[in-house]
Amino acid sequence: MKLPPNVSEADFTAALKGFAGIVGDQWVFAADEDLELYRDSYSILWGEADERTASAAVAPDNADQVVELVKVANRYRIPIYPISTGKNLGYGGAAPALAGSVVLDLKRMNRVVEIDERNGYVVVEPGVSYFDLYDYIQERGLKLWIDVPSPGWGSVLGNALDGGVGVTLAPYRNHFDAQCGIEVVLPNGRVMRTGMGALPGAKTWQQFKPGFGPRIDGLFKQSNYGVVTKMGFWLMPSPENHATGVVTVPKYRDIIPLVDGLGRLERSKIVQGLWTLSSPTTGMPGGGPGASGPAAGPPKQNDSRILAVLNDPDGVNMEKLEAAAMSAGVPFWACNLNLYGPKKLIEAQWECVRDALGEIAGARFTLNEIRRLPLPPEDLAKLHDLGPFGIPTLRTFDLGPMISYDGEDIVGHIFFSPVIPRTGEAAIEAMDVFAAIARKYKLPGPPLQPPSSIFERAFLFAIGLPVTRSPTVNAKIREIIRELVVISAERGWGEYRTAPALYELIMGVYSYNDHALREFLETIKDAVDPNGIMSPGRYAIRSRHLREAKD
Ligand SMILES: Cc1cc2nc3c(=O)[nH]c(=O)nc-3n(C[C@H](O)[C@H](O)[C@H](O)COP(=O)(O)OP(=O)(O)OC[C@H]3O[C@@H](n4cnc5c(N)ncnc54)[C@H](O)[C@@H]3O)c2cc1C
Asked: Which atom of ligand 1 is least distant from the CA of 175?
C-alpha cells in the first residue's frame, strides 16, 4: 500500500474506511490498477522516484459528501487533491501535485445546476465536461454558445481553475475571466459562496462579479484553498453568422504594424474574434489554424527557393526567407480573423480591418463567405477545428503519429507556456530565442512558430516539448525547460500555467521583492488550511509543514 507522506498505515486505513463510510466502498480506490488511471500519462517524471502518484482516490457524488470527506482528511492529516475530469494533459493530467495524496475525483458531480438563456449564464458542477454542456444546450435548443479548449473532454470548471483558454470571442476565451460566482468547500469543511452568492437567496450571483467587499474569486485559480463544487460562467449568445477574413502582408517585419493595427481594433472592441498568425512560407493555408477551410491539412510548401531556406541546418534566416518568399510571390504573414454576428456587423468589422491595416504596403485582404450559423453538419465534418464554432471535439489528437526524440518514442508533451508582450517586436524576439533553443537541442516542431493571440492583451506561446518513457531523455527535457524558463525570465517573460513537476522552478522566477507574492500566498495557506491537507504544493504554494520539510 502506498501511503501519504507522514501518515501511518493505521491512520491511512482508518481514513479510507472513513471515506468509504461517506461515499460507499465502490467509490474508494486503492488498488494498483485503479490508481494507474490517476497517473499523468504525459508525466515528465514517469517511473522515477519523484513521479506524482496517488495513494488512493475517492469519488463523491455531491458537495455534502465533499464536506464530510474534508473533515476526515483533517482528522487524519491526509493530503487530498481535487480534480474535476482530470484531463489536464500537458499540465499534469489527473495526478496530484504531491506524491501520496488522495485524489478527490469529482467526475460524478456532473449536474448542470442552472442555465439562463435570457441572461446568458450557466452554473455547473465539476464533472460537467464541455461535451456534456454542449449536449445539454443543444437538447434544449438554447441559443447559447460555449467557449471550448481544443480537447472537449475536459471540465468547464476544472479547465477554468487551471487558467484554461478557448478560441471564440475575447470576453469568453480566458475561462477564469468568464466565471461569475464560486461555491467552494474550504479546507476546514465550511461551504462558502463568493460574490453575490454570499447573500442567501441571491438573485444576481451570476450577474455581478464584484460582489461586496474584496473580490476573492481569483484566489481559487491555480491555488489550493478549497474544493470548488459549483461555478457560474457567462455564455455568449449564439451568433447569427461567421466569416473568416484573411490579411496577408509581404515582409517579416510587417508583423509589427500588423499587431499594432489589430491591437487597436481589439482594444476598441471592434474585433473580438480570435485572430491567428501563420506564415504561408511554411505551407500553412492562408487561413492558418482555426480557419474554416477544408480539413485537407496544410498544403506543403513546394517552392524550392523557400524550401532551401527552411531546411537550412543552421536555422531559418528570416531575411533570406523573406527574400525567397518575395521572389516566389508568397506573403510572409497571413492573419486569419474570425468574425461573428449580424452580416452587416461582419461587413463593417471588415471595413475597419481594411482601414486599420491598409497602410501596410502590399497588404491583401480577403473576406471569405459570410455563412449563416449553425453550419450544416456536412460542412462541420470537413473542418479540423470546431472550436471557433463553440463545438467541443477531440480532433486535436488527430494530428498524425507522434515521432521520436533522441531515439525514444514520444508519448505526449509537456507545455512550456510563456506570456510575452503583444507587439511585433516582442514576437520577433521570442521567436528568435525559442527557435535557437529548438535548434540547439534538435527539438521537433515547425520551422516558424508564431505566438498565439488567445489572451486579449498579451501574446502566448504554448510550446509542447516531447515526453518519452526514458528517464534520461525526460531529464534532458526538464533541463531544456529550465533553460527556457530562465532565459524567458531574464527577458521579463513568465509562464501562465505549468505542470506540477515545474511548479517550483516557475514560481521561483516570480521572485519580485524576495518572493513577496509567494510569501503572501503561503500566509493565506497557513490561515485557511492549517493542517495542509488541500492540494499541497499546487502551484508551489506550500503549507507550513511542506516548507519546514524543505528548509
Ligand atoms: C493536445 C492538447 C491540446 C490542449 N489544448 C488546450 C486548450 O486549447 N486550452 C486549454 O485550456 N487547455 C488545453 N490543453 C490542456 C488540458 O487538456 C485542458 O486544459 C483540460 O481541459 C484540463 O483538464 P480538465 O478540464 O479535466 O481539468 P482537471 O484536470 O479536472 O483540473 C485541472 C486542475 O485544476 C484543479 N482542480 C480541478 N477541479 C478542481 C476543483 N473542483 N476544486 C479545486 N481544484 C480543482 C486541480 O489541481 C486539477 O489538477 C490541451 C492539452 C492537450 C494534450
From this structure: 11
pLDDT of res. 399: 64
Check if the beta carbon of residue 410 is closer than 8 Å to that of residue 468: yes
- The helix/strand/coil state of 165 is strand
Under DSSP, the state recorded for 129 is B
Task: Report the amino acid identity of residue 265.
Answer: L
Q: How do beta strands 102-105 and 80-83 pair?
A: parallel
User: What lines the ligand 1 site, CB under 6 Å?
Assistant: 82-92, 106, 126, 149-151, 154-155, 157-159, 161-162, 164-165, 227-228, 396, 535, 538
Out of 38, 81, 83, 231, give the residue to mutate to test ligand 1, the one with the largest number of ligand atoms within 8 Å of its CB. Answer: 83
> pLDDT per residue over 98-144, tens digit each?
999 999 999 999 999 999 999 999 999 999 999 999 999 999 999 99
**3-class SS letters over 452-496:** ECCCCCEEECCEEEEECCCHHHHHHHHHHHHHHHHHHHHCCCEEC
Question: Cα(483) to centroid of ligand 1, in Å?
Answer: 25
Closest CA to 255 of 331, 326, 350, 314: 331
Torsion of CA 164, 495, 446, 465, to 10 degrees: -90
- Residue owning the nearest CA to atom 4 of ligand 1: 150
DSSP annotation string for 63-81: HHHHHHHHHHHHHHT--EE
Provide DSSP, 256-273.
HHHHHHHHHHHHTTS--S
What pLDDT sits at residue 151? 95
Residue nearest to atom 40 of ligand 1 (CA): 228
232, 181 Cβ separation under 8 angstroms:
yes
Reported pTM: 0.96
Atom from ligand 1 closest to the CA of residue 42: 53
Residue 239 has what DSSP assignment?
A: P
Residues known to be catalytic: 91, 496-497
Look at residue 87 and give its three-state secondary structure.
coil
